[in-house]
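Complex 319.
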Amino acid sequence: MVQSLDRQTIKQQALTLGFHKIGIVRLVPDDADLSSQTGLQQWLDQGYHADMSWMSDPRRQDIHTVMPDLRSIICVGINYYTSHQRPHGPEFAKISRYGWGRDYHRVLDRRLKALAQWLQEQDPHIKVRYYADTGPVQDKVWAEQAGIGWIGKHSNLISRDYGSWLFLGEILINLDLEPDIPHTQHCGSCTRCLEACPTDAIREPFVVDANRCIAYHTIENRDAQLPDDIAENLQGWVAGCDICQDVCPWNQRFAQETDIPDFQPYPENIGPTLEELATISVSDRDRRFRASALRRIKLKMLQRNATASLKTNTPKEQG
Ligand code: B12
Ligand code: SF4
Ligand code: SF4
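Predicted structure with cobalamin bound:
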C-alpha cells in the first residue's frame, strides 16, 4: 500500500491542469457510508427522480461498492461562467449556461484523465477511478465534504469564489490523503431560489422534485408532450433551466469569467429564436450542437420544447 503523497503537490498539479477548485475527503470508517445518509433514499421513495431509474443504482449510496479499496476522494470544480447574457424578448429560446459551449463531460474527462495518470506515475501501487457526472457517485455531497463549497437551497453546490457555475468531478484513490474541512452553509435566511422557481420544483430547501423541474423535462423527459403545468411555465427555456441560479445572490456577486476556451458559447446558442428551434432540421441541430452536452436532447425533444414555449411565450394581445 502506498503511504503518502503530499496534498499540496496534488492540488498544484490539479490547478496546473486547469481545475479551479480542489478539495480532499478522507474516508474513515465512521463516515464511510456518508453517501447513504444524504437523503437520496428518501428522495427516491418520494418518486422525485421521475423516470431517471438509474438514480436508484445502489452503488450511489455506498461509495465503497464503486471502488472497494477506496481511501480518499480528490474533488474538483471547474468554472464555466462567461459574461454573455441572453437577449430579452418572448421570441428568444433560452438555453442554460451548462450547454452553451463544449460538452463539459469531455472538458472534465480530459483533465481528470491527465490528473489520474500523473497520480499513477507517482507510485505504481496507486489505483484511481475518475468521474464527472459519469458514475453512480453523488458529486455535490463529496464536493461539500471536500470544502469546495456548500449545497445551496436550490440543491446546487455554491463556492465563495465562483458561485454555482461549477461543474464537478472527482478521483477516487486507494491512498490516505490529508483531508480538507467540509464547507459550511451560507444560504442563511435567503429563499430567493425557492420563490423564483416557476414550477415550485424546490419542494423544500435543498430538495428538488424532478417531476416539476424544467431542467428535467427539457433534458430528460422523452414523452411526445410535456405536462401542461410545465409547458405553461417554460418561460422560453428549451434546454435546461438557470432560473434558480440566476437569482442567487452568490452568483450575482461572485461569478467570474472562465479561462477555459472550450466553455465559450457557440455563438448561435445564446439567443436562438423559438421559431427556428421548433422546426430545426437534423443537420442544423448537428451543426449547432457539435460536441455539446445538449446532444442528449433529441431532435424531437428540442422541437417539442420550443413549440411548447412558443405557445405560452407569445405576448398577450393588448386589450
Ligand atoms: C439527477 C441530476 C439532475 C436531475 C435532478 C436534480 C437534483 N437536484 O437532484 C435534474 C435533471 C433535474 C438536474 C438538473 C440540473 N442539474 Co443536474 N445532476 C443530477 C446528478 C446526476 C445527480 C444529483 C443527485 O444525486 N440528486 C439526488 C438528490 C437526492 O440529491 P441532491 O439534489 O444533491 O439533494 C440532496 C442532498 O443535497 C442532500 N443534502 C443537502 N444538504 C446536505 C448536506 C450534507 C452534508 C449532506 C450529506 C447532504 C445534503 O439533501 C438533498 C435532498 O435529499 C448530478 C451528477 C452526480 N452524479 O451527482 C448532476 C448535477 C447535480 N447537475 C448539475 C447541473 C449543472 C444541473 C443544472 C444546473 C443544469 C441546468 N442548468 O439545467 C440543473 C439544476 C436543477 C436543480 N435546481 O437541481 C451539476 C451541478 C453542479 C453544481 N455546482 O452543483 C451536477 C453535479 C453535474 C456535475 N458533475 O457537474 N440534475
Ligand atoms: S432548474 Fe428551474 S425549474 Fe428546476 S428547480 Fe431551478 S428554477 Fe425550478
Ligand atoms: S438563492 Fe439564496 S437560498 Fe437559494 S441557493 Fe442562493 S443563497 Fe441559497
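The chain has two domains: 7-83+103-173, 192-313.
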